[in-house]
Amino acid sequence: MARPVQYNIYGQTDVKLVKEGPEGYAGEGFFTTSLDKVVGLARKNSIWPLPFATSCCGIEFMATMASHYDLSRFGSERVGFSPRQCDLMMVMGTIAKKMAPVVRQVYLQMAEPRRVMAVGACASSGGIFDTYSVLQGIDQVIPVDVYVPGCPPRPEAIIDGFMRVQELVHNESLRRRTSDKYKDLMNAYGIQ
Amino acid sequence: MLTNESIQQKLTEKFGDQVTGFTESFGMMSFEAPKDLNLKVLQFLYDDEELQFRFLSDLQAVHYPDQIGRELAVVYHLHNLVSNVRLRFKVFTNIQTPDVFSATALFSSANWMERETYDFFGVNFVGHPNLKRILNVDEMDYFPMRKEFPLEDQTRIDKDDEMFGRGGTF
Fold first, then answer.
1. In whole angstroms, what is the distance from residue B169 CA to residue B160 CA?
2. All domains of chain B, ordered by start, with CATH?
3. Nearest to A131 among B135, B153, B159 (CB)
4. C-alpha to C-alpha distance for B89 and B101, rounded to whole angstroms
5. Å from A108 to nearest chain B CA?
6. Do B156 and A136 touch (CB under 8 A)?
7. Which of A40, A109, A171, B66 has the fewest CB atoms nearer than 10 Å to its CB?
8. pLDDT at position A36, please?
9. Out of A97, A131, A136, whose CB is closest to B151?
10. φ and ψ of A124, to 5 deg
11. Where in chain A are the domains?
């Protein structure tokens, strides 16, 4: 029996590949909404991740990127290895104290709007490595947007964390990165 | 045929009662000498026609806080590659002046291993060409493998010891 094929014809099928758009005024052939919603929508669906993988969580990320879990469904096809082109730094794995300046340097090289996701117990809190040589969570050197728990987290957990980043990107006000609160946050980390 | 007994005999012939503490565990002999003699003993073990201990397979230190006056032991693991015999050689030093002569002139491989030993135990290898930290951050101001320093990171303020089974009311 042939497999039934359904096309994404809006309104004519129960399968919806495209979600409802943002709030706005729609008419024949046009749609108006506020700028930050359009920008948020565009940014949300084209987040370029920068993998900063140092250990086993990195292996889970490789599984997340591969065809079975397929992170590119979320608009992250392009994994960048240049911090200047990327929007989201995914720190996966134990960060030794000697590595901390490198993490910070990579973060500083990223262009705004930049985001950070701490994947796994080690990146979030030092994990089991409560010892003299390991940084007790990357939030000691850079601000973190989303923490993904797990040791290591399953690819589903990483995807969940990624979708939360998407949510943050989608709902971010265009003025947030120039606000005093954001500047205070950066100053708290001694950045710029 | 090189046996532990013949090695011990040769060492005793050469150094008399300066070499002490001959013990054997799992077929591997271990002995100690005063720290001033470490290079002489290593050189003898290297040069002797029969002994030929010409490979330094490992070098590290041990901290014994209870042994007053000889708190730090520097341990040389030597290997005779011809007869396939291994040997452990220890020198003890006090922790106030942990100066031990560097073996870098004899074994090039001692360079990084002595740096590591300095990094973790603070043994000052006299004559080392580049004695600085190798694994830890340069800003570190203590020697983490000495036993007076707790293993846990001391910079944390958010950890509840009770949750980790250390102290608290449990």
1. 12
2. 4-147 (3.30.460.80)
3. B153
4. 14
5. 21
6. yes
7. B66
8. 87
9. A131
10. -80, -40
11. 43-162
Check CB contact of A130 with chain B, cutoff 8 Å. yes
Which residues of chain A have a CB within 8 Å of the CB of B151? 130-132
Burial tier of B27 (Cβ tally within 10 Å: 0-12, 13-18, 19+): exposed
**In this predicted structure, which of A5-14, A165-174, B14-23, B48-57 has the lowest mean pLDDT?**
A5-14
Q: What is the pLDDT of residue B168?
A: 58
Distance from CA of A141 to the nearest CA of B (A): 13
Q: Does A104 touch chain B (CB under 8 A)?
A: no
- The pLDDT of A56-69, averaged and rounded, is 92
DSSP assignment of A127-187? TT--STTB-S-GGGTS--SEEE-SSSPPHHHHHHHHHHHHHHHHH--TTGGGSHHHHHHHH
Cα A14 from Cα A8, distance rounded (Å): 9
- Nearest Cα of chain B lies from the Cα of A93 at a distance, in angstroms, of 18
Taken as a whole, chain A contains a residue count of 192
CATH, range A43-162: 3.40.50.12280
User: Which residues lie closer than 8 Å to A35 by C-beta, 6 or more apart?
Assistant: A174
Looking at the partner chain, which of B135, B151, B155 has a beta carbon nearest the beta carbon of A136? B155
A134 touches chain B (CB under 8 A): yes
CB distance from B141 to chain A under 8 Å? no
B169 pLDDT higher than 60: no
> What count of other Cβ atoms lies within 10 Å of the Cβ of residue B129?
10
**Which residue type is seen at B64?**
Y
A150 and A120 Cβ atoms separated by less than 8 Å: yes
Chain A residues with CB-CB distance to B155 below 8 A: 136
- Residue A118: beta bridge partners? A91, A147
Q: What is the mean pLDDT of residues A77-84?
A: 88
Q: Is the ipTM of this complex over 0.95?
A: no
- φ/ψ of residue A190, rounded to 5: 70, 25
- Joined together, the tokens standing for residue A112 give 């705004």
